[in-house]
Amino acid sequence: MSARLVEIFLSEEQIGLLETILSRHTRRFWRESVPGRPEKYSCIVQQRYTERLLVDLQNNFADVPSFTAYVLELEAVVPPVIESAETELDFPDRLRPPTAIERFFTRDRISTDELYDDIAESLKIRPHYLVTALLSSVIAGLGMRSGQTAVVIGAMIIAPLLGPTMGVALAATVGDGRMGKAAGVALLTGAIVAVLAGMLVGWSVEIDPAIPELRNRAIVQPADIALALACGAAGVLAFSRAASLTLVGVMVAVALVPPLSATGIYIAAGYTALGLDALYLFAINLVCVNVAGIATFLIQGLPPRNWRMTSGILAVWVLALFLLASLMAGKLVFGIGTF
Fold first, then answer.
1. Angstrom distance (rounded) from CA 26 to CA 24
2. Exposure string (b/e) for 195-224, b if CB count within 10 Å is 16 or more?
3. Which of 49-53, 196-200, 304-308 has the highest mean pLDDT?
């Protein structure tokens, strides 16, 4: 169901402006008066209009002490809220109408505030985060060591790197330095834990470096870049539509956790060069996921606070991808740059 129930609390002096705003962005709204308390308005909003409603409310009432807004997901609405070209609401003069591409991709995207809420808790480094990062790497390492692909996939289900990875891409898109720092620290911490867990596996069991499931994490090919870009784009598309976080996590973790685990395993087993190759694959995958993630967020119409900042960050990621891809090409064509 692509609709939201937005509940707004505001002082009576502001309700004239509020009703004008609601008429621009919502299908249905109604008022509830509670003696001695702010007025309460409830409205049904098509999911694609939630973003612009919240922005309008924030711009007009952010400094009003009594203002509060809640966004709730709806399972059903009777009569239904119809999504079609004929039912499209007009855009206020100050808002640029979406392009055909933005209209297509933003149809079911949840609002930026909902994205923030989904990511916020996963950026906190807590015991659960550290333990699941360790266990996912151990399981992935043992699965690769024994050549069991199903076990490796199982490790991706519990891998906790979804939030930090999506947080880095989201922060770069909207230009949120605080979120970017928190996501970067959480991602770096998770990556270090995953490498250390891989080293634990490498020290504990005998390792055959030629096992295909493990050796493939130390080989970088053009297909790996395509895979990581697809994972990043698919992950953001699913995440921004409130899809199952487990499903999205598998998309992202498959590109990050196995190379990190392989890095630790190879280094602990004494194959340092292979370990650095696996770390190189992780670096390419991480860059690709962020390039694809930022681009997909922008295509979906996520509003950057500063286009210059967002464009600059994206350019840095693209440059990093170009340099890493050039090194890969040199290794494949000329046999240079091998660790």
1. 6
2. bebbbbbbeeeebeeeeebbbbbbebeeeb
3. 196-200
Predicted confidence band at 339 (pLDDT cuts at 50, 70, 90)? very low
**Mean per-residue pLDDT of the chain:** 83
* Residue found under tokens 């004929």: 86
Please report the pLDDT score of residue 263 as a whole number: 95
**Pair 1, 77: CB distance under 8 Å:** yes
Contact yes or no for 26/52 (Cβ under 8 A): no
What is the length of the chain?
339
The DSSP line for 98-114 is PPHHHHHHTTTPPPHHH
Percent with pLDDT over 90 in the chain? 35
Give the CB-side neighbour count of residue 128, counting CA atoms within 13 A.
6
Domains of the chain: 3-75+86-97 (3.30.70.120), 112-333 (no CATH)
Amino acid at 101: I
Dihedral sign of CA atoms 297, 298, 303, 307 in order: positive
Task: Check: CB of residue 107 under 8 Å from CB of residue 39.
Answer: no
- The reply to whether the predicted model has a pTM over 0.85 is no
How is 272-308 classified by DSSP, letter by letter? Answer: HHHHHHHHHHHHHHHHHHHHHHHHHHHHTT---S-HH
Closest CA to 331 of 280, 291, 289: 280
What do you get for the CA distance between the two ends of the chain, in Å? 51
DSSP 8-state code for residue 44: E
* Ranges 4-13, 14-23, 168-177, 242-251: which has the least confidence: 242-251
Average pLDDT over residues 120-144: 90
Do residues 10 and 61 make contact, with C-beta atoms less than 8 angstroms apart? yes
CB contact at 8 A, 301 and 174: no
Please name which of 246, 245, 248, 244 lies closest in space to residue 233, comparing C-alpha atoms.
248
Helical H segments across 12-126, by residue range: 15-25, 47-61, 100-105, 112-120
